[in-house]
Design a protein that fits this description.
Helices cover 29% and strands 23% of the residues. It is an alpha/beta fold. A nine-stranded mixed sheet has the order 7-6-5-4-3-2-1-8-9. Helix 4 links the parallel strand 6 and strand 7. The radius of gyration is 15 Å and the shape is globular.
């Protein structure tokens, strides 16, 4: 099974595409599904579930939540994380209360990196995103990979797409028949990281939308 574990839809304030189009693009690239991880909202879940059913795809329900030290991805969630802007500990504990996985995305990419010290949270953190297709530099990914490897953390990858065409450039692959099994494989570290950097052109449209939202 191949899943892009970091995808945004137009329910995020800086993304452009519908859940249907994001999932459809993932399937077009040979993936089996995506995780919908919009910024601080689960408004896209209903559309994503409907789209996944229509397209015969898998969808992991998630959210990218802003803590007071940086973003945290919650995967396999059951409801919205209400603790926006709170400490990483509070948010991670809430993710775990829902039996979800807490992942730090793009931890060392300067513009969107984690501002806190990841080592302070190794005892409660589930994993780190070690490959982000949207951010062009590879050194931050390698640094994340090294920390995940040394501390036996789950390694994840995602396109961090903000437009449908950017979906599927990075993903996680493992032997699984359903999402419960996929989750177990992640927890057992029995997954592989796949992908490549997405074209620079896909960074531009979300940036324009973000600027428009300021005015």
């Amino acid at each position: 099974m191949k899943i892009d574990l970091h995808c945004h839809t137009y329910y995020s304030n800086d993304a452009l595409s519908s859940p249907y189009d994001v999932i459809k693009e993932a399937l077009k690239k040979g993936l089996n599904g995506v995780a919908i991880t919009d910024h601080d909202t689960i408004s896209g879940w209903k559309d994503a579930i409907k789209a996944a059913d229509e397209l015969n795809a898998f969808v992991i329900l998630g959210e990218e939540v802003k803590s007071n030290e940086g973003d945290i991805l919650g995967l396999f969630l059951k409801e919205e994380i209400k603790m926006k802007g709170c400490s990483p500990v509070q948010i991670i504990n809430e993710i775990h209360r829902q039996e979800g996985l807490a992942i730090i995305p793009h931890p060392f990419h300067k513009s969107e990196g984690f501002k806190g010290n990841i080592r302070d949270y190794l005892n409660i953190l589930d994993g780190i995103e070690v490959y982000n297709a949207r951010r062009p530099l590879t050194y931050p990914d390698k640094k994340a990979f090294d920390i995940a490897q040394k501390n036996n953390l789950i390694m994840t990858a995602g396109s961090d797409c903000h437009i449908d065409k950017a979906c599927g450039y990075a993903y996680v692959e493992c032997e699984a028949k359903n999402l419960n099994e996929f989750k177990r494989k992640l927890i057992k570290r029995e997954n592989k990281i796949r992908g490549k950097k997405s074209p620079y052109i896909y960074i531009l449209p979300p940036t324009i939308k973000k600027l428009r939202n300021l005015f």
